[in-house]
Design goal:
Helix content is about 40%, strand content about 20%. The chain is an alpha/beta fold and about 250 residues long.
Amino acid sequence: MMETAGQREPAQPLPGQLSGRKPGIRALLLPIKHLRNAKQRLAGVLTSEERFGLAQAMLADTIRAVRAVQRADRIFVITNYEPAMETAAKSGWEILREDLQDSESASVDFASRLCAEHGVTALLRVPLDVPLVQPSDIDEVLATECAAPAVVMVPSRDGTGTNAILRTPPTLFSSHFGPNSFAKHRGEAEQAGATIIIKRNKRLEMDVDDESDLRALMRCDLTNTATGTWLKESGVAARFWARAIAI
């Protein structure tokens, strides 16, 4: 997070940086943390290298889907992870660089304010760990018609988390990603007097935070995904299945 006297600085000029204003802009935001710090809740079942490999694979699948999205007028990546910035630049996406990352909520809220200042009227946050997601899943959320103030939310598979959230305007309310975020976001939306639209989508709902999520993912069809390939080639899938049989 970039700060000066307690305030965030404007994003540093990078290829694909914010430019110009346009009315009625719907944008997509990908907050990407340093992958070496990802998936800490899997530390009991995966080594640090395995967590890194899994995070890389899931990010690859998410990026594959985002590249084919049709309904996003602009795509932003907020990160301090150099490989993610390189990928964003090659894809023609707009980069918001952070020096430090306090939390995903802080990153998303900073990006939301900056996007709003540059004419974005609706902003969809999608996480990096939804390996089953298809471009059509993201387009369906972006295509939802709703006048401001409004929010469209896709919960996690257990209904407690927030896997995708489209806010109109982007700064409608603060983010509360983490445990029980869905209820917190709904409460904020109600307090803001916003129209609330809940969408269910099995692919968007399938993120991976803990062991139960990983087991659920491995029961899905992972054909043609980087995540499925990694799980097989790393030996993680075989190890998990062997453990399940033993139990």
